[in-house]
Design brief:
By secondary structure, this protein is an all-alpha fold. Helices cover about 80% and strands about 0% of the residues. Helix 1 runs antiparallel to helix 2.
């Protein structure tokens, strides 16, 4: 959508100027063009949206694997490395630099910085930094986060399943409405019109 930013802006300005006539046409066209320019600039690029959706889809499984690796006795760096090897993808790519940083003894906040900077992965980064700084069990924190992310993913799937019925009703209604009018209403109107003439 960003590639055609000038085109969308010109079309919006032309539409605004066309629908509002007279002296208010030019300001309306300018306002419509400016608003379209701003909205298109804020639109998320398709590649970034696909990446965000892939991270959201993979994150619950990734955190569950991380919790399992930590419960088996791996240290945090080794567990993250194993998870990145087993479950490649955008989420694992963001985590890939963390084991090396942890191995160098970098502060947990800086070691997890690539994860903290990604809005989708930030809950995992915050949980790991909080656990490492406080000295609490990293395993318990990651297991709790895994359960929470799994519940969120389940709720998202249920919400999408609920909307399928609503989305399917619109095309069905569009297909059935003309037949309803032709079979049910037109004969009724024709019958009423012929009875009124008698």
């Amino acid at each position: 959508m960003r590639r055609g930013r000038w085109l969308w802006t010109a079309l919006a300005a032309a539409a605004g100027g066309t629908f509002v006539s007279g002296a208010a046409g030019l300001p309306t066209a300018l306002l419509a063009g400016w608003l379209t320019w701003r909205l298109v600039a804020r639109a998320e690029p398709p590649a970034q949206r696909r990446r965000r959706e892939a991270v959201a889809r993979d994150l619950p499984g990734l955190v569950h694997l991380l919790a399992s690796a930590l419960e088996s006795g791996c240290d945090v760096g080794e567990a993250v490395r194993l998870v990145c090897d087993v479950l490649p993808g955008p989420a694992a790519d963001a985590l890939a630099s963390v084991p090396a940083r942890l191995g160098l003894g970098v502060d947990p906040g800086e070691a997890w910085r690539p994860v903290l900077d990604d809005p989708s992965l930030a809950p995992l980064g915050r949980a790991m930094v909080r656990a490492q700084r406080s000295g609490s069990s990293v395993t318990g924190e990651v297991a709790r986060l895994a359960d929470e992310l799994g519940e969120r993913a389940r709720l998202r799937v249920e919400e999408r399943a609920r909307t399928v019925g609503v989305k399917a009703a619109v095309p069905l209604g569009i297909c059935l409405l003309p037949s309803f009018v032709l079979i049910g209403i037109v004969p009724l109107v024709v019958g009423l019109m012929s009875s009124l003439r008698l």
